[in-house]
Amino acid sequence: MSAAEIVLGLGLLCAVVFTVTSILIFAALDRRGVKTNFLLIRFLIPKYAHQYKAITKQETGKTGALFFWWVLSINLALVAFLIVLIVR
Fold first, then answer.
1. Distances (CA, A) of 40 to 8, 45, 55, 68
2. Which of 11, 50, 54, 59 is the most buried (most CB within 10 A)?
3. Which long-range contacts (CB under 8 A, 24 or more apart) does 15-23 make?
4. Is residue 76's pLDDT more than 90?
5. 70 touches 53 (CB < 8 A)
6. 3: Cβ–Cβ under 8 A, 6 or more apart, which residues?
7. Nearest CA among 13, 14, 7 for reference residue 73
8. Considering only CA atoms, which of 68, 77, 73, 82 is closest in space to residue 18?
9. Which burial class, exposed, middle or buried, applies to 14 when counting CB atoms under 10 A from its CB (0-12, 13-18, 19+)?
10. Cα angle at 74 between 76 and 43, to 5 degrees?
11. Domain range holding 34?
């Protein structure tokens, strides 16, 4: 197993974490009564994530943990895939 394959696997894992946190953010907004559109979640998730950040900051005084996982996972996935493209 080469280093590129390991980095690719980590990138895919980060992409899965991003997908799961996106769905959890969507569900959290839905529970709070925010109008959301599941069919357009792919395009509107940045908007929903920032709404989640604002709502949790207003409720608790801190940004919700899902927002940090969302940002971290998509950025790590991007870096991992760029590394794989450069190495190959």
1. 28, 8, 21, 22
2. 11
3. 15/73, 15/77, 17/69, 17/73, 18/70, 18/73, 18/74, 18/77, 21/66, 21/69, 21/70, 21/73, 22/48, 22/49, 22/70
4. yes
5. no
6. 87
7. 14
8. 73
9. buried
10. 160
11. 3-87
Q: Over the stretch 27-75, which tens digit does the pLDDT of each residue have?
A: 999 999 999 998 998 899 999 999 999 999 999 999 999 999 999 999 9
Tokens of 41: 């979640």
Q: How far is CA 15 from CA 11, 33, 62, in A?
A: 6, 27, 25
Output the pLDDT for position 30. Answer: 95
Give this prediction's pTM.
0.90
pLDDT higher than threshold 90 for residue 1: no
Report the 10 Å Cβ neighbour count for 37.
10
The span from the CA of 75 to the CA of 38, in Å, is 23
Give the number of domains in the chain.
Answer: 1
